[in-house]
Design a protein that fits this description.
The complex is a heterodimer. Chain A is built from twelve helices and twelve strands. Chain A is α/β, with parallel strands linked by helices. The longest helix of chain A is centred in the middle third of the chain and has 15 residues. The longest helix of chain B has 17 residues. The chains are: A alpha/beta, B alpha+beta.
């Protein structure tokens, strides 16, 4: 094991753009105020719902990267710009080939592929210059990340649906543990598209109103979009990634194991990997999608994992920004890192009136608290589960 | 990073239902769909072409290695993912069908194959699906090796892709391809040893006529050289992508 493995690895910088804002400061100020940022869905959505849409003030990629330009890569560009000095410092400190890139994404720039396909159907050709690999694919995401950061270490996109960017933290931790890199730019990015909106609708999971995770009045998911990054380093200052846990449900492609055994296994593995005990967990950022099924399953799994003695605060932040799918793990990691640094937990928006069956300590107003250890969950299609344990700065 | 041991291989492409068949150029026109015995009837009926191929080679490699498919951690790599299903969905939307098929939707995610394999075998172990372009073979092998470096005793790496369909085709060749490598941290039952993953000035992998620019095709030489007994440094990237240096790994044969 490498030197940092026992105490985890510090996260020295982080950033996000999502429905709440196009800078981390804007996002956190809106989160603190307890206001949702949900707006009408993209044009062409054939049903009523609200979405966590990233604001309009996004710059196109520079001309030299024009063929990679997409809404998704504009999120990436905006979020990376905020932490550029830290990325440059890591590159200087470790060497550019010793800093990797591991980012989660479920659909990347599928919205661009949808537009190109519609254009082809209408006029018989793809838009001029459209290159599916540069603009619409995950390779285009990697090339954009490399071009914007100058990082030359290993690079991969994790694509395990809604667990993608949570699992990117687990892969990044493995890479540092194995000694192949000294730092990893971890993150996630996904943009709204019709396939996911209509797909979740086909499963009967979309709420036509703002999502209400853990409420007895919850009616389903709102879809969101955004990007988030976290710079994980072998050594440095900041809150720490203490442990990660991954599991498979081996149950069903879209329905979680109702007993929550897969979720429980991921949480238990993360807690064991972190070298802490269940009673040390002060705060859980839940997957909390706002569907009847997920929230009941997850509550059962959290109770089974953390036991009756512990009484951690459990929050879903999906009431603010919607479910940002492949980006959710990274965006919610940023929310947790901010909590560990700043000592407040956002209200679990929409949870009031609480579902009495949930049986967890879910705050419906912001809480000031000195949180030392937090856990964050992401669950996905295919029964893919990941839990991350973060610790306050040492 | 410590060396890792190759304990099992899998390959499926139309005309070849095993790594040996491919390496002997033993084309069999009757091989049109994977047998995919691991999937029960209902799962097999719902599975996509890509998922069937990927689960088939997962099964081949774990069987050859004598690994338990119900407990082994896995890494899956696909560049184009469930592109064929995505195109079906796009076409349904174009025709004005507002409501999608739930099965098509859940079959469109990149981790579809790993989900089916997990359900079919009752496997609760960690499973990660990676995607990307020219670097995908190297990054997924690296991810698998990191599992072994951490604590896993064995891991299976499955790589699978189909050519892109119109209107997005880009010289990807004509055939789909799936390959698998069962890897272990210990030498028992190994056929080969991999070490020294790095970027180096070695010749990149030439495009194969059948697979063109399908990125997982860059793993073919590694599989072929294990089967045919040709040790040495093996490139893991297709030519024409990254001038200068390419990812490569050193291959030794056990007993050679």
């Amino acid at each position: 094991m490498s030197d940092g493995a026992r105490r985890g690895y510090p996260i020295t910088a982080w950033s996000t753009v999502n429905g709440l804002g196009t800078s981390t400061g804007q996002v956190m100020s809106a989160l603190r105020s307890g206001q949702a940022a949900l707006s009408p869905p993209p044009a062409g959505t054939p049903f009523e719902t609200v979405c966590g849409v990233v604001g309009p003030d996004l710059d196109p990629l520079p001309e030299a990267l024009g063929r990679f330009d997409s809404r998704n890569n504009r999120f990436v560009q905006r979020a990376l710009a905020e932490i550029r000095p830290s990325i440059e410092a890591a590159r200087e400190r470790w060497g550019s080939d010793r800093v990797g890139i591991c980012v989660g994404s479920s659909t990347a720039a599928m919205d661009e592929i949808e537009s190109a396909y519609a254009s082809h159907a209408e006029i018989g050709s793809l838009p001029a210059g459209f290159d599916v690999f540069a603009c619409g694919s995950f390779d285009g995401l990697i090339r954009t990340l490399r071009a914007l950061t100058g990082l030359e270490g290993p690079a991969a996109i994790v694509s395990n649906a809604c667990a993608s960017s949570g699992k990117a933290f687990a892969s990044a931790q493995r890479w540092i543990n194995a000694g192949i890199v000294d730092a990893v730019l971890v993150g996630g990015a996904d943009s709204l598209c019709q396939i996911t909106l209509r797909g979740f609708r086909s499963l009967g999971l979309i709420s036509s109103e703002p999502s209400r995770p853990f409420s007895r009045e919850r009616r389903g998911i709102n879809i969101g979009e955004g990007a988030a990054f976290a710079l994980l380093e072998r050594r440095g200052q900041g809150p720490r990634l203490l442990g990660t846990g991954e599991s498979g449900d081996a149950h069903h492609m879209t329905t979680p194991d109702p007993e929550g055994r897969g979720a429980q296994r991921a949480m238990e593995a993360a807690i064991a990997d972190a070298g802490v005990s269940a009673s040390d967990i002060d705060y859980v950022n839940a997957h909390g999608t706002g569907t009847a099924f997920n929230d009941a399953m997850e509550a059962r799994a959290i109770r089974a994992t953390l036991g009756d003695r512990a009484d951690p605060i459990v929050v879903s932040t999906k009431g603010y920004v919607g479910h940002t799918l492949g980006a959710a793990g990274a965006i919610e990691a940023v929310f947790v890192l901010e909590t560990l640094r700043n000592g407040w937990i956002p209200a679990s928006l929409g949870a009031d009136p609480l579902d009495p069956e949930i049986g967890l300590n879910i705050p419906t107003a912001r809480v000031d608290a000195d949180i030392r250890i937090a856990l964050s969950n992401s669950f996905a299609f295919g029964g893919s589960n990941v839990s991350l344990v973060f610790g306050a700065p040492e | 990073m410590r060396p890792v041991y190759v304990t099992g291989l899998g390959l499926w492409t139309s005309g070849h239902a095993s790594a040996e068949s491919w390496c002997r150029s033993d084309f069999d026109a009757s091989v049109e769909t994977p047998a995919v015995a691991l999937l029960s009837g209902p799962l097999r009926r719902r599975a996509t072409g890509l998922t069937r191929m990927a689960v088939e080679v997962f099964h081949q490699a774990t069987s050859q290695a004598g690994c338990n498919p119900s407990t082994i951690p896995s890494v899956w790599a696909t560049s184009n993912g469930e592109h064929t299903t995505a195109i079906k969905i796009l076409d349904m939307m174009r025709r004005g069908e507002g409501k999608l098929s739930p099965t098509h939707f859940h079959n469109s995610v990149h981790n579809t194959a790993s989900g089916y394999a997990s359900i079919a075998t009752g496997n609760y172990a960690p499973s990660t699906t990676l995607t990307g372009g020219p670097e995908l073979v190297a990054s997924s092998l690296l991810e698998a090796m990191c599992h072994l470096e951490a604590s896993a005793e064995e891991v299976v790496l499955v790589l699978a892709d189909e050519p892109l369909l119109p209107p997005f085709e880009r010289g990807d060749g004509t055939s789909a391809l799936a390959l698998a490598f069962c890897l272990a941290s210990r030498p028992d039952g190994a056929v080969a040893i991999l070490s020294g993953m790095r970027r180096d000035a070695v010749a990149a992998v030439k495009h194969h006529d059948r697979f063109g620019r399908i990125y997982v095709g860059a793993a073919l030489p590694l599989l072929e050289r294990i089967v045919l007994g040709r040790p040495g440094t093996v490139a893991l990237e297709l030519e024409g992508e990254h001038p200068g240096s390419v990812s490569c790994v050193d291959l030794e044969l056990v007993g050679a």
